[in-house]
Please model this.
Amino acid sequence: MTSKSFDDALDFLPNAVASNTPRTRRLWAVFQSFFGAIHDGLEAQHQYKLRTSRGIPSALAAKAAFDTITK
Model:
C-alpha cells in the first residue's frame, strides 16, 4: 500500500473484503495493511528527515518523501 497524499495516509484499512472469506484471512489482511501503512509512514519520515537536514524546505521535503514511497 502506498499513499499519494496526506489524506490517503489516514486510510489504512483494506477495501471491501469478501464476507465469505474466513475470519482469520480477513484479520490477516487487516494486519498486513496496517503494518504496511506503518512501514510506509516510517519510510516517509526517514526520507523527510534526510531532505530537511540537507536544507530542503519542509513542503518540498514532504512532497518528495511521499513521491519516493509511492514509486
